[in-house]
Amino acid sequence: MSPIQEIIQKVSASHGTERIALLPILQAIYKNNHVLTEEDMIEVARELDISAAHVYGTATFYSFLETQKSGKYIIRLCKTITCMMHGKNIILQELERLLKIKPGQTTPDGIFTLTETNCLGQCHKGPAMLVNDTPHTDLTPENIREIIDKYRREALQ
Amino acid sequence: MTKNLKRLDLIFKNEGDSEVILGKTLARSNEELISDLIASGLKGRGGAGFPTGLKWRLAADDKADEKFIICNADEGEPGTFKDREILTSVPHKVLTGMAVCARIINCRQGFIYLRQEYTYLIPHLNNAIEEFHQLMKKFKVDFEVKIFMGSGAYICGEETALFESMEGKRGEPRNKPPYPTNFGYKGKPTVINNVETLAHTYSIFKYGPEKFRDLGVKDSRGSKVFSVSGDTPIPGIYELEFGMTLQKFVDDFGDGDAKAVQVGGAAGFCVPRKKFEKTIIGYQGKLTGVSLPTGGSMMIFNSSRSMYNVLHNYLDFFVEESCGQCTPCRVGTQQLLMGIQAVKRGERPSTYLDKLLELTEVMRVTAKCGLGQSVANSFSSIVENFKEEMIY
User: Name one GO molecular function term (chain A) (predicted).
Assistant: First the structure.
């Protein structure tokens, strides 16, 4: 069984093998591989017995699913109004300086992907960002360095 | 600063009595419970304000063999974070509300549609659901709740887009009617309620409809959880009574220099200082002034803020979050953004703003869902009240 089939089988245990299982399957593959490749999508389409175009349509609709390879840690910095008011741009500059990449890019070592995202629901503690699933709030240029260092150390271990 | 507004503590008060309340509530008849909900005046707290009791009755009246109850936790409106706090502090109230609804409409499967940004809440929620399932067994109720994760799409907070998303499709809203109470998830009758709405039903079943009805004003009963952010010394989550004027709100929460408040997030209305006194927070039903419904997002801007930047940020948001299905919204949002940029750069005359206002009216009438229709709210309220900031 291919790794993708294994993931599909695992998700199907709780969500079934019909199209209603599609989003959970895509989420699980993305969580595992940090990318949805064309081969993956064709495989999913075959397993669920739906058209690959439908799988592609769903996969490309959602901002938390990507068809390009992301780093081990995906940084999603909130750019919506209150985070912007509370200094999101300074945080972004600091992140760009620390990681030496621009939003949409991945570090050459494959550890970090930097993106900007819409409201994370942490408006009272902005600026805020997600690193994979973990929220970090009340960001400052100082504490952002520590956060990045912590993840980098984890990745290198 | 004097604190004028009464802070309430209904939603977040946890007395550890959910088993007793659930038992008592399940012992009453469906008709009694629906009557209580209708008498309480509870309306949907996601922002649209549909009467909750009526919604449950409509779903109960449908005789389909399979039905669903979905808790909408796809809290994506900029400036809103109350649902996250409710799910963190009192998930048992939300689950109890779902169980009672399930009994009334006769359904066995419930879902919490959680936005992916809140993935870190899953372990906590699963614990609450586990305990809840034990309770269901104890009361011999055949009802199960599952979490379904969104994947980062604001539009999926719209109920029919949410169903599409759960069905493995792109989150594109459906035409209405048919309404979810007859044709929802998988084409079956579905009650879909906001997190806060479900938590309120708990208070109503516990204290009775009168106590809830005593709060608030005509057409806007009960308390409401507000997410306060922006230029305020005390950002956070506050439970307040409906019917306050914006002036009172700003006196309590502003930094003394508030020039505008955005009520209801990017899809809501911007109210300038001169209208604070006449604006009342509540659902439609005119009182002494204009009353504005809100999902609970209150963003305060002080005089150091450029309202052009605020509007630009909202339009960036809408351009990205428009699902692209219908032309008025897909093209309209982009044209509005390019339009205000052109006016700012002097490439278009200031009268071009009137053309853009016309465009928002077209979008209000022709867009398929609430997203495209409500772009007009923030656009027109900011452009009309802060025209000079748009031009110079």
Answer: NADH dehydrogenase activity
List the domain range (segments joined by +) for residue B228.
217-302
Give the gap in angstroms from C-alpha B81 to the nearest C-alpha of chain A: 5
The reply to whether residue B151 touches residue A22, judged by beta carbons under 8 angstroms, is no
* Amino acid found at B17: D
User: Is residue A66, in this structure, part of any structural domain at all?
Assistant: no
Domain count, chain A: 2
Q: Are residues A89 and A152 located together in one domain of the fold?
A: yes
pLDDT digits (tens, 9 = 90+) for B10-42: 999 998 899 999 999 999 999 999 999 999 999
Q: How many domains does chain B have?
A: 3
Q: Where are the beta strands (DSSP E) in B231-342?
A: 236-241, 258-263, 269-272, 279-281, 290-292, 297-302
Question: Residue A68: inside a domain, yes or no?
Answer: no
CB contact under 8 A, B168 and A119: no
Residues of B in contact with A136 (CB under 8 A): none
> What is the span of the domain harbouring residue A24?
3-59
Give CA separation, B65 vs B55, B189, B190, B318, in Å. Answer: 18, 9, 12, 39
The shortest C-alpha distance from B40 to chain A (Å) reads: 29
Is A87 marked as binding a ligand? no
B:25-84 residues touching chain A, CB 8 A cutoff: 75-81, 83-84
ipTM: 0.96
Tokens of A82: 């209150």
